[in-house]
Amino acid sequence: MYSYEQRLQAVELYIQLGKRVRATIRQLGYPTKNALKSWYQEYQCQLDLPRGYVRSKRKYFQEQKEAAVRHYLDHGRCMAFTMKTLGYPRRQSLAAWISELHSEARVRVVSKSEQPSRSPELKQSAVIALCTRHGSANSLAQELAGRCKTVGFRG
Fold first, then answer.
1. pTM across the whole model
2. 3-class state of residue 129 by DSSP
3. Sign of torsion, CA 112 113 114 119?
4. Positions in the chain short of pLDDT 50
5. Phi, psi of 84 (to 5 degrees)
6. Pseudo-torsion of CA 9, 11, 17, 23, nearest 10°?
7. DSSP 68-89
8. Which of left, alpha, beta for 64 (phi over 0: left; psi -120 to 50: alpha)?
9. Which pLDDT does position 155 carry in this prediction?
10. Which residues of 140-155 are buried (b: 16+ CB within 10 A; e: fewer)?
11. What confidence tens digit (pLDDT) does each residue in 86-122 have?
C-alpha cells in the first residue's frame, strides 16, 4: 500500500510525463500500470486523491449468505452444486458462512484412523469378487458390507 504522498507524486509525474505509464513506472519504480491509471482517474474526478484507502463494500448481503447456506443444506450438502447453481460464492466463503450460520452442519472429513480397518485377505477377496462379478458393482458392495457387519467389522 502506498501513502497519500506517494500516490500523489506518481499521478503528478504521470501528468508531467504526458500520461506515459511506462515512463512513470520506470522513473519511480512503482506502482503497477492499473494502479496508476485508477489513481489518475480518481485524481481527475476530484482533483485530489483520497487520504486513505476506502474499504470496499460488502460483496454479499446477509440474505444471500442465508440463501446459499439453505441451498447447501437442502440439496445434499454439496458445495460444488450450491456454487454452480447460485453462481456464487467461492468455496472458502461458503465454508465460512456454513460455520457461521450452522456450525452443527459443518463439513467433517473422516481421517484414516477413523475409517474401518479391513484385513488384507478381505481386501483381496473383494477385488477378486469385483473382477469376476456377474451383477452390478453396487450390489456386490452391499453384499460385502453385509458380510463385514456379520463378521464383526465396523462399517
1. 0.38
2. helix
3. positive
4. 153-155
5. -70, -45
6. 90
7. HHHHHHHTTT-HHHHHHHH---
8. alpha
9. 43
10. beeebeeebeeeeeee
11. 988 889 999 999 988 887 765 555 555 556 677 888 8
